[in-house]
């Protein structure tokens, strides 16, 4: 009986590992996803080919290539595209205000003349850029800081500017903030009542047959190991 079970599990592992995955995701989730992909590979033998970019790039790749097996992004954004049919929740994203060289005591200090440059991801292409605009408008800071704003392509690009010290503050997600915390002056989570927290999900494209590897990866996200990685990065 044990031998039969072992052979069945071995066959399943070989079947999954023979079917590689191509997963596209928003660039702001690269750090936790790379760790999860590596853990999935160790667990199943299945390699994940990873593609990261802003969500407009991810959607174009999903729509035009026909090769994307799974997508990680914000559910509301993905639903509007009409390209997906099943969603697996990963967690709620958190918007963070990060400081390059000197931490502020409060986000209201963004209006201080000493704060000259504030970066955010492109609100037309990145969910955290949209969240940053919501925050600035709902907090009524926008009129006083709009001339300080610098639009960059993605969350990781804002993080790179923070690390380099070329901006005073920047809006990124909690995931990236945790990853760069030792290289910046600090960060604070933005009050959740001042923006709509992104709902981060794994999505299955409608026009792509669901492979056994895709099913296995979705199931793996429910494991303690995957949940631990997501929690570590603020999801």
Automatic annotation (TrEMBL):
Keywords: Metal-binding, Signal. The keyword Signal applies. GO terms for biological process: molybdate ion transport. GO terms for molecular function: metal ion binding; molybdate ion binding. Residues 1-18 form the signal peptide. InterPro entries: ModA, ModA/WtpA. Belongs to the bacterial solute-binding protein ModA family. PANTHER family: MOLYBDATE-BINDING PERIPLASMIC PROTEIN, SULFATE-BINDING PROTEIN. This is Molybdenum ABC transporter, periplasmic molybdate-binding protein. It comes from Thiorhodococcus drewsii AZ1. The lineage of its organism: Bacteria, Pseudomonadati, Pseudomonadota, Gammaproteobacteria, Chromatiales.
């Amino acid at each position: 009986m044990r031998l039969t079970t072992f052979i069945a599990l071995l066959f399943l592992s070989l079947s999954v590992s023979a079917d590689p995955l191509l997963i596209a995701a928003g660039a702001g989730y690269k750090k936790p996803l790379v760790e999860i992909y590596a853990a999935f590979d160790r667990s199943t033998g299945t390699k994940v080919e990873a593609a990261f970019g802003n969500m407009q790039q991810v959607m174009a790749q999903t729509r035009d290539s026909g090769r994307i097996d799974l997508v990680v992004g914000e559910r509301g954004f993905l639903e509007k595209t009409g390209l997906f049919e099943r969603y697996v929740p990963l967690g709620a994203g958190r918007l963070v205000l990060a400081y390059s060289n000197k931490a502020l005591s409060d986000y209201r200090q963004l209006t201080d003349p000493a704060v000259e440059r504030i970066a955010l991801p492109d609100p037309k292409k990145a969910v955290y850029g949209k969240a940053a605009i919501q925050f600035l408008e709902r907090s009524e800071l926008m009129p006083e800081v709009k001339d300080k704003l610098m639009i960059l392509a993605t969350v990781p690009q804002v993080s790179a500017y923070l690390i380099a010290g070329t901006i005073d503050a920047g809006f990124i997600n909690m995931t990236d903030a945790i990853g760069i915390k030792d290289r910046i002056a600090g960060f604070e989570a933005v009050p959740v009542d001042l923006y709509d927290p992104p709902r981060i999900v794994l999505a299955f494209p409608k026009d792509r047959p669901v492979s056994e590897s895709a099913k296995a990866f979705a199931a793996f996200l429910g494991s303690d190991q995957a949940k631990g990685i997501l929690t570590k990065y603020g999801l």
